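Repro:
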Amino acid sequence: MSDKKVAVLGLGATGLSCVNFLLVQNYNVTVFDTRQLPPGEDKLPSCIELIKGPLNADLLAEFKLIIASPGIALATPALQSALQAGCEIIGDIELFARALQQPQYQHAKLVTITGSNGKSTVTSLLGEMAREADVKTAVGGNIGIPALDLLRPEVELYILELSSFQLETTFSLNADIATILNVSEDHLDRYDSYQDYTQAKHRIYEQSKNCLFNRDDLLTLPRAADKPQVSFGFDSSAYGLVCDTQKNICLARNGQVLLNVESLKLSGKHNWMNALAALALGDAVNLDEQAMLHALQSYTGLKHRCEFVAQRRGVRWINDSKATNIGAAQAALQGLSETIAGDVHVILGGDGKGADFSELSEVLKEVQGGIVCFGADGQKIASFNSRAVVVNDLQQAVSMIADKAKAGDLAILSPACASLDMYPNFMARGDHFRSLVTALQADRV
């Protein structure tokens, strides 16, 4: 295929990874981007032609192979015309899958992970487990580094987070194990129906030797009965939860205790499920059990996503600044009080962008500790719970909870709002929270 002309649709980090890979493979590459100032243009080799503006169906039809960005829907008229003209349309993940068939990469194992929520946490956690087990590991895909930039002959294990958009144009992964962690309504602006979105997720099972599914989410159940399957869930079977002799909740495999959940720095029931999924995936590629359990106990989570910051006087402080909407805050807080011995304290607020904060009412009823609100919409949020208190800023919120919380409690920043009323972005807000908590530690030892 090296004599074929190839079109790469969409620049950015993924587009550049495709260009660089194809050039090494001696393809004749042309890049298309609808934006007038596409990111990464300054890094594009001078030998590559870049065509900007609306996609031209007639021009695309001249290319037998088209590498489409995940952000460009296959339903786009220009792509549909190209398909009708006999063009092959794939994505960067399919290029990666074909590259793995080359002799220098065939020894490596592959784990693929998708889901509406939690896939970044499970992907990064499994990567930490593999590194703890001294396995040469490369982690990327929809998280961090584009898949093609991960390719190295020395890598023993590839771990890819994949979105439904990426799976649409992927056909030949042949992963050692794949999982759909969960399915909830998302991206319905891209798909004709919820069923179509779910079907896109299920393409990951079709390209794997083994399947891991969520027993508590029937939409993750593999449809092909001819493949080995394993599952995780809240009950005690397979990878699940059991109580030990002291009635402590523990992660378990086939009813056998692996780890007390109190040993995890990750908080919340949803993260218990993420931990079980990572253990199941690690077992499937023969990672050392003790290495996995050690990594689980030290893993603090992705930055700004239910990230463990510190423990102060027995109080766990969690940074969930990326919870920039109501749904994200609900996911973090739902059932959280059931997972700890003490009370949950929560900090909310910022720019709600017109959201209906009444949707937080039910989950705030579960919060027995302090409810502290700040920012542009702090007062609006506080109006939906009689115990909520409004303060001027994040510093006051942290100070108030630090004075009130006791050993065994948990304090979480889960704003349910964007940050732009007071910060450049949610990362800056989370970093400020971290610094405030760190200062508490330094001052109150």
